[in-house]
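W.,

You were right to be curious about this one. When I first looked at the sequence I had no strong expectations either way, so I just let the prediction run and decided to look at it fresh. Below is the sequence, 136 residues in total, followed by the output.
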Amino acid sequence: HMTQLTDAEVDRVAACKVSVAHCPESNMKLASGSCPVPRLLAAGVNVALGTDGCASNNDLDMFGEMRTAALHAKLIASNPEALPAPEALHMATLAGARALGLGDVTGSLEPGKAADIQVLCRHRVQVPPGLTRGRR
């Protein structure tokens, strides 16, 4: 998960066009280090977002993972503007598809691509689906 990279290794990862799977909650639970996401992105590396599975994370919550990734990037970069929400969403969608070699097939809402879409209420994102049935 690229948690122990030197600057030279970041450059090599970028030059070799390697995709990185960033799983911040797993990295924190296992105390395995911090992926330097802001440095990788600045170097042009495709960084995807994942959960790494329940055994090393306790859940498969991609919304939580996006939030954690964004907050963690700000902390390690000492920059409150590091990894804004649209970039975290990109890492969870199209960057993940590209990491799997499927960027032309899925990962974004475009004509001809396979896609699933989830609609969220902007005013009540914290409410799980199904809990508000029958209420207004």
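Here's what jumped out at me. The first strand starts at residue 19 and ends at 22. And, maybe more interesting for your project: The helical segments are 7-15, 24-30, 37-42, 62-77, 85-92, 94-99.

Coffee later to discuss?

I.
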